[in-house]
Amino acid sequence: MVFSEKQESLVKESWEVMKQNVPELSLRLFTLIMEDAPEAKNMFSFLQNTDEIPQNNPKLRAHAVKVFKTTCESAIQLHEKGKVVVADTTLKWLGAVHLQKGVMYPHFEVVKVALLRTVKEAMGDKWSEEMNGAWTQAYDMLAMAIKDEMKAET
Ligand code: HEM
Ligand code: ISQ
């Protein structure tokens, strides 16, 4: 799979812009995920026993940032190495965490749609189909790698 330098920079540069607004971004990502997959709410330790998505939850923010950052990292690796290696141990850990929380394959589609929509809304005028494609590829490759790890754990 070819992931060009242009695609890598589209992901990197948009993340640089988006990370200046982490509180809003993380809330938006989470809201979209919950709208699509309400049953996933209780998987998240920081959301258990709450009725609403907290507007100001540092844990939620930190988590959402990691999701974006890991996807961004995946884009960089896709360009440099042609595949997602993340650190092997990180991937193993991500596989184990998601398996243990009861994440199912269809959830990956939900998170993907939510992530892409968050990027689109956050970037506004600066958003483009090409940027969308770059995030899509980076996410898909990463999701595949996490799913493989989940499979390997069972
Ligand atoms: C935890 C990233 C897909 C649900 C995490 C963590 C990361 C992460 C980095 C660990 C955060 C930490 O402990 O500091 C990703 C990435 C994904 C992905 C990059 C896709 C490529 C999903 C999907 C779901 C999901 C599809 C299902 C809705 C969770 C849950 C946790 C978690 C429930 C544990 C949260 C807790 O500690 O309570 N994810 N994730 N993730 N993820 Fe994901
Ligand atoms: C963990 N995994 C996937 C998506 C997420 C969104 C917000 C917070 C944590 C997450």
Describe what you observe in this structure.
- By secondary structure, the protein is mostly helical.
- Helix content is 71%, strand content 0%.
- The chain contains six helices and no strands.
- α1 (5-18) packs antiparallel against α3 (58-81).
- The longest helix is centred in the last third of the chain and has 25 residues, at 129-153.
- The model has no long low-confidence stretch (mean pLDDT 89).
Q: How would you summarize what this structure contains?
A:
The chain is mainly α and 154 residues long.
Mean pLDDT: 89
- General form: globular
Q: How large is the radius of gyration?
A: 15 Å
Gross CATH architecture: Orthogonal Bundle
Bound molecules: protoporphyrin IX containing FE, isoquinoline
Give the fraction of residues assigned to helices.
over 70%
Termini distance? 28 Å
Oligomer: single chain
Count helical runs.
6
Task: Break the fold down into its secondary structure elements and pairings.
Elements: H1 5-18, H2 22-36, H3 58-81, H4 88-100, H5 105-123, H6 129-153
Helix pairs in contact: 1-3, 1-6, 2-3, 2-5, 3-6, 4-6, 5-6
The structure holds protoporphyrin IX containing FE (HEM) and isoquinoline (ISQ).
Isoquinoline is lined by residues 29-30, 33, 60, 63-64, 67, 111.
Question: Which properties best describe this structure?
Answer:
single chain; 154 residues; mainly alpha; Globin-like; 6 helices; binds protoporphyrin IX containing FE; binds isoquinoline
